[in-house]
Amino acid sequence: MVAESPTFSPLYRQIKSLILQGLESGEWRPGEAIPSESDLAIRFNVSQGTVRKAIDEMAAENLLIRKQGKGTFVASHADPRAFFRFLRLVPLAGGVEQSTSRPLECWRAKAGTEAARVLQLKLGDAIIIVRRLLQFSNRPVVVDEIYLPGEIFSGLSLEVLKDWQGSLYSLFETRFGVRMIRAEERIRAVAADRNSAELLGVDDGSPLLSVERVSFTYGDRPVEWRRGLYSTAEHYYLNELG
User: Fold this and answer.
1) Per the CB 3.0–4.6 Å rule, which of 24, 146, 153, 192 could disulfide with 206?
2) Is the peptide bond preceding residue 149 cis, with omega within 30 degrees of 0?
């Protein structure tokens, strides 16, 4: 990354863009500390206050994490605080419950019309499709079908998924260098078909929550299309506003 002094207003947004370039290029990896505000101010030839404003905005967007007395670090999916950001299921009894991923299938395919559109690929480009169960307290709660660009996730296999101990996003970040920055979700109510009912241990026709998600990495590039069915018999979907 080449240090340069931005010239367009607002200045802090230009600094934010330069820091983002460093994150995207891998200059600062997930979990690593970025330079201090004073060092960045010297590097970009701006005031420390301008750098602080850029970092404040990035921290609010969960791109960076401030640690009191330690500095500012690149956010990572390996951080326990990131667990709830992309999985909003909460037990009816309250509290936070850790999930366990049980991979079912993983295969390569060619992108059809919808997958190509959502992931911004060409029709027929290689994709990887993953099916897995999410279990809470050893009970199946979510069945996911996940579509990924084959070029980015080359090497992903059922064996890799079964061997991994952390979250799926932590695997993507650690093994493939892909960090999910934000996601868009569409939620609606559906009835369980025979296959999903069997996997989730519910009756045919039981009400399920359909959650369709598109996740983006740096540069607003879509890198995951996920279609999940959620059993809400003992859980609810929590979304905090404001």
Assistant:
1) 192
2) no
